[in-house]
Amino acid sequence: MRAMEGGDSMSRPTPSHAVDVVSALDISDAPLGPSRNWPPLLARLFDVMLCSPVQIVLFWGPDYLALYNDAYAPTIGSKHPHAFGRPASEGWSELWDDLRPLLDQVRLTGEPVYARDRPFFIERHGYLEEVNFDIAYSAVREVDGSIAGVLCIVSETTERMRAERQLRANEARLSFLDSLSRETVLSADANAIMDTSTRMLGQRLGGVSCSYADVEPDGDTITVRGEWTGPGAHSVIGQYRLSQFGETVARTLRAGQPLTLNHVREELPRELSALFTELGIVATASIPLVKDGRLTALMSVNYAAPHRWTPDELALLSEVAERSWAHIERVRAEERARAEAERARLAITAAAIGTWDYQPALDLLKWDARCKELFGLPPDAEVSYAGSFLAGLHPEDRERAAAAVENALSTGADYNIEFRTIGLRDGKQRWLAATGSRLQIDDHPLRFMGTVIDITQRKRTEAELQALNATLERRVMEEVEERSKAEDRLRQAQKMEAVGQLTGGIAHDFNNMLAVIISGLNLTQRKLDKGDTDVGRFVEAALEGAQRAATLTQRLLAFSRQQPLSPKPVEVGRLVTGMSDLLIRTLGETIRVETVIGAGLWQVRVDPAQLESAILNLAVNARDAMPEGGTLTVETANVDVDDLHARDSGIAVGHYVLIAVTDTGTGMDEATISRAFDPFFTTKPVGKGTGLGLSQVYGFVRQSGGHVRIYSELDLGTTVKIYLPRLQGPMPAEPPREPRDVARRGTAAETVLVVEDDARVRALSSEVLRDLGYTVVEAAGPLEALRFIEAGPCPALLFTDVVMPGMSGRQLVDEVRRLHPALKVLYTTGYTRDAIVHNGTLDAGTHLLPKPFNVEALAAKVRAILDE
């Protein structure tokens, strides 16, 4: 202690240390006075305290003057060093009523006080907080046995106690959630899940009621379907509008943020709080369930008195809401699936269609009652592949039908066959039409499933018609042959569709399109089978579906930057101006179209048809974002992107022509913008959009060397900016346009050599060219085409596929032009690869007609090339 008084031999310590505080007492008016005047017992005891790492505080004398070591100082926080040497009633005023009885007990009785994890309420950081300590208070005695003070050795256990409480709370929460899961996970009734979840959660949180509500697609209509209420509570079952509870409440929940009200009368305006109090609600918390960007459900707990919500309560409410929603949606999905299955069963029953399911590995065959009936069996009969199916076939059809099954199982080919049966028990002969397909998913056993229908009456009618008229017999044979060809083409399309296990998005769209095509062809078939030739509308529907499928393929190629482009110098201002009428007609009367064309626009080099398609795609997207109408603005301008702008926007430095398409629609949030260019991503309802519009725009712009950016704000609108690189140099002279009525037919003197490895495509293409008046020579492959050209006169035009086995179309042209350098060539393909397209652009002087093409496109292309 005396060493503390000699300042010459010590560096001056920081004022926060106890030594410095003691030195300061020498010049202060503290009751304890300078340390040199301290009693020997106090001085010795304080010297011992200073050396101890344990938290120690000494309360000296009847006024309990406080002395403590450095280890104890953090325990009282901001009170240090002011509390040092002062009466404890000053430094510990907020807990003096709690602390003084303990100190008095020790000082007056000499009995020590011990406690573990004792709670205190102390203000050490500017606010009152609950803390816990292990304490050991003991008397400090003079030589004569009198008690001079109370020595307190403490150890703070606040964090450990908090951790233990949190652990207990987590265990209780997990136990509750486990109980809730056991109560609901096996339930097949959505209402029962709601009732159980609301009851258990409401009772767990001690509320007066708990409810679960669905939010309709309009984002405003709320239907409370599940509810638990305690004694005397009001029921809230019914339908409400979110907007009636005020803009703040509605905005909070639609944004996916929890709504917590500790006291509605203090936190809401009078007219809004009245809506809650009428329902007996004084405090409430609602957890919104936002799925796919839309508010879909709410779960709420209510109190009839003010209640301050804790983070643990809100966390539990949120987790129960999420789990309940998942269970409820699962059950609802199962209910919908059962309903759809029942509708399908009723439809099959009404259509008198039988179904079958065969597992070859297990030799397990299942027939429904209708299928058994068509084979002359009762509903309860046992069936097998050999004993029922093969045995029930007409002897003349047995080998053919068995071969068709084996081919479908081994190759995956579609199973589509007609055969006769002899009823196994009733002996009746029937004509049946069977269709099916092989199904194998991952490692599951191979299955062969399909349908069968009785066509006996149709066959009988066909036979009667054949017997009546020989001419009709010939026509029927032709129709059957054409039907067989159509079935072959359809099966080929279906096999190609299955290759690669197309993603969900493209499968959805292609299936819709194929449904239109198949329905059109089936209806055409049924009409023609009945002798009715009024099938034009069905053929048109099938053609429209096929064209949509071709457009979808082009969009996929555009996104992957694989579509062949025919770029040429374009004046963007003239192109946009020319599209005004098209945009007005497309968007409808509720959308006002404005164009702002910049002066002196630079030239760009792009495929004009693809640029028009990109602008139209953006306009249609903008229209869908403005269901109540609005304004679409198409603006063009010259833009210089410097280094600074390039770093901020991610656009390469250079000169660009900007095309900005702006709408006043609903806008997009950041999450939607980040995925806007992803193929098949769409915010539109199922069946309302492919999700390929923006991805096509992105692919075309990037393939053209440009950039595209989206700027959007919710409820304010969206701007899509296309940056196309400037074309340096003067604009080439525009070639004269052909008159629209230019002749598209050929002459017999003009020979077209058609080279196509696909016999059906080759036959159809050749037939079209012959119909157009050309002399057509067909070659099944490049080698056959070379032999024809080497042996005979040079054709006027070589019309060749690009991708063929053995030799590509480009390689064939290279060989032919060694003999005939001036030969005119037209390529066709469904996918160009790298044979005639490089860097996304057709090779110079190359003509391409992409598959699929129609008669008009082929006629125009051939005529244009021959007339060059």
From TrEMBL:
Lineage, broadest ranks: Bacteria, Pseudomonadati, Pseudomonadota, Alphaproteobacteria, Hyphomicrobiales
Transmembrane segments: none
Domain Histidine kinase per the UniProt entry, residue ranges: 505-728
Short name of any one Pfam family annotated for the protein: HisKA
Enzyme class of the recorded protein, top EC level: transferase
CDD domains: PAS (cd00130)
Record domain Response regulatory: where: 751-866
Modified residues annotated as 4-aspartylphosphate in this record: D801
Name recorded for this polypeptide: histidine kinase
Span of domain PAC: 415-467
Natural source organism: Ancylobacter radicis
